[in-house]
Amino acid sequence: MEAICIVLSQLAGSVTGAGILSCVYPTDKDLTGALGSNAVSEEFSKVGALLAEFLGTFLLMYTVLETAVNPATEASRVMACLVIGFSVFLAHSVLIPIDGCSINPTR
């Protein structure tokens, strides 16, 4: 039952966010062709973009699990937010030119 509530909350949040974004951001200023969407750059293949997204998501998840969840790293947990933020920055730096960077384990 909890999983159903989480999925419904994720869907409601994404629809609400998309609705707010479409009200705030004018359609004629959108250069992506579909507001808030990501697309694979012409220089990269879809398989390559999928692999890059997988690796970026893996980097994020591994960092979170090793710094914020692993009991062995409890002493350095105060630095977890910095390390997680750096891994997100690194993934975005690499993936934005490829496909807009969609690292999100819930997708």
Multimeric state:
single chain
Low-confidence stretches: none
Strand element count: 0
Q: How much of the residues is beta strand, in percent?
A: under 5%
Question: Features of this protein?
Answer:
107 residues, mainly alpha, 3 helices
Protein architecture, described:
- The protein is an all-alpha fold.
- 63% of the residues lie in helices and 0% in strands.
- It has three helices and no strands.
- The chain has helices at 2-24, 46-69, 80-99.
- Helix 2 (46-69) packs antiparallel against helix 3 (80-99).
- The longest helix has 24 residues, at 46-69.
- The protein is globular, with a radius of gyration of 17 Å.
- The two termini are 19 Å apart.
- The mean pLDDT is 87.
